[in-house]
Amino acid sequence: MGCLRCGAATEIGALCRACAAEVEPCDGLIPDHIHSQVDSTDAEAWALDGFGGAHAIGAKTRIGRNYDCDVIVLAGSVSREHAELQYAETGWTVRDLGSRNGTFVNGTRVQGEMPLPGRALLKVGDVALWFLTEVMAEPPRRPAMATGGMTGGLMRYQLLLSEVELSIIVSDDQTAGGALLWRPAGIETWAERSLAPLEFQLLRALCMRAHEEAASPSAIRGCVPTKQLVGELPFQSKYANQENVRQVVLRLRGVLAEVGARGLLAVAPGRGYYLACDVKVSSIPSPVRHGSAENGATPE
Fold first, then answer.
1. How far is CA 266 from the centre of its chain?
2. Which domains does the chain have, with CATH numbers?
């Protein structure tokens, strides 16, 4: 099978290397973070990502971070409801839904609504996609996102404090950054703060350990030793040490303080770091076929 955009030999998924380079994934993005709930038999067009994945686009397709969107993009730069693509007799259009980081077509920012060419470079936030109404070959079918727990799929951790609630969504990728969602107690709307890979993976490791030891009778549960974090966090240098971990801890504490969670990341001398709160964990429901009665489900 040739590249779906140009027909050249494929090297990265369903794309050749040159076409994939123009939609190179942004920091922290992994293949499972982009998924279409539109069945391939209903596809009127296709969106191709930098991993070479092909995502079906229906005649009216909403793109965003919410799980009731038609194309789900789990990136911090993408709004919950970011953009909408629609086909009519006059052709395709794209409408920005008031996103924070904008929608772009071939480098031009969408103001309200604008025409969408049949072969275009579409960008939602920092996520670039090829939009194609015609492809050079039959796109490969993609499996649904796995939800099999910590050995596969996406998991959501909720950190419950008296004054604020925090949430992160993690995958098996132990090198990626991600988004920290937070909201004051009693408020329905979530705010978002991006975390760099080191800070995000530190929070991920602490959440995992807190969940694993939730039933422990110990007064302090979920400690992760500093030496263990030296080996597990995605430091670029092979000479990372405990002082590097402490610097990551300080940066993460600064972010947590900004969102009202001061004191959440605690230390037990001689034992390591832990989260001073209850942690809930849940699987992200698998996306279902477009039009299903379950399509609007959102994880708690």
1. 27
2. 17-132 (2.60.200.20), 155-283 (1.10.10.10)
Packing angle, helices 197-212 and 242-258, rounded to 10? 90
Cα–Cα distance for residue pair 81/20, rounded to 1 Å: 25
Whole-model pTM: value is 0.53
Tell me the two tokens of residue 42: 């209903």
Largest CA distance in the chain: 68
Residue type, 191: A
- Whole-number Å distance between alpha carbons of 44 and 60: 9
Pairing of strands 71-73, 34-36: antiparallel
C-beta atoms surrounding 166 within 10 Å: 25
Residues making up the chain, counted from first to last: 300
Residue 236, number of CB atoms within 10 A of its CB: 7
The per-residue pLDDT for range 40-89, each reduced to its tens digit, is 889 999 999 999 999 999 999 999 988 779 998 988 899 999 999 999 99
d(CA 150, CA 184): 28
Token reading at 180:
């920290």
